[in-house]
Specification:
This protein is an alpha/beta fold. The chain has one domain: Rossmann fold (3-Layer(aba) Sandwich). It has ten helices and ten strands. A hairpin with a 2-residue loop joins strand 4 and strand 5. The chain is globular. It starts with a helix and ends with a helix.
């Protein structure tokens, strides 16, 4: 038995409960079939990076997991509970799923501190003192505690995206979804956001990340999902994907991305 086999056996001996499960998920936008029979299981604590060309269905996949996009058929479960279609049950489940988008969606008229405090007070019914203490702790964790009393417009894009991450973490989510979290940022601001995400990964947060940042994907992912034309084409480790992709589609994608 090879060393790789031994380490693989050891890793598989630790069975972690499934956090995200997608079974036979289909999604159309009109005549366009954007998700084709998606089956995906993400264990608790795993960091999954979703890669692929534009229009491959990556962002739609991410958005179906908390039903920002409804699916046509199939099932999606989070921590063993199937996603409700609507109503209070859906709101409760969404509270367990943190989401960070390309755009920061911060409330412009509230301070950074107030932005992070709002949802825990409204949704989790935390008292103001507890919400403030937690918000300050999280702002410190993402490296911007000194900006707490400023408004979003006074911060750089990278700082605003770190506030958005702190805001999502304030709900104590079971899983974090990131949809191209650095694509709207100036290049020099990208790493400060990726560093925060690497920290979360090391702490064991279950994460599904749609990204174009190949170096980050290779460094921080436990697993790579490569999508094209609404289908999961490859599902492998970062080393396998980047050094020996199996499909012609992935080889073509990587040659274009890494050839520059």
């Amino acid at each position: 038995m090879t060393h790789a086999d031994e380490s693989g056996t050891t890793a598989s001996a630790v069975v972690r409960p499934t956090m995200i499960s997608m079974k036979s998920v289909q999604k159309h936008f009109g005549a366009l079939h954007v998700l084709r029979d998606i089956d995906l299981e993400v264990p608790t604590g795993q960091v999954v990076m979703v890669l692929g060309p534009s229009g491959s269905g990556k962002s739609t996949l991410c958005r179906t997991i908390n039903r920002l996009e409804p699916i046509d058929s199939g099932t999606i479960t989070i921590d063993g509970k199937e996603l409700p279609a609507e109503g209070r049950a859906l709101a409760a489940l969404r509270a367990d799923v943190g989401m960070v988008f390309q755009s920061f969606n911060l409330f412009a008229h509230k301070t950074i501190l107030e932005n992070v405090m709002l949802a825990p007070m409204k949704v989790r019914k935390k008292n103001k003192a507890d919400a403030k203490a937690k918000a300050l702790e999280l702002l410190d964790r993402v490296g911007i505690a000194n900006q707490a009393d400023k408004y979003p417009a006074q911060l750089s894009g990278g700082q605003q995206q770190r506030v958005a991450i702190a805001r999502a973490l304030a709900m104590n989510p079971k899983v974090m979804l990131f949809d191209e979290p650095t694509s709207a940022l100036d290049p020099e601001m990208v790493n400060e956001v990726l560093d925060v995400m690497v920290g979360l990964a090391k702490e064991g947060m279950t994460m599904l990340v749609v990204t174009h940042e190949m170096g980050f994907a290779r460094k921080a992912a436990d697993r790579i999902i490569f999508m094209a034309d609404g289908v999961v084409v490859e599902d492998s480790t970062p080393d396998s994907f980047f050094t020996a992709p199996k499909s012609d589609r992935a080889k073509d994608f990587l040659s274009k991305i890494l050839g520059h």
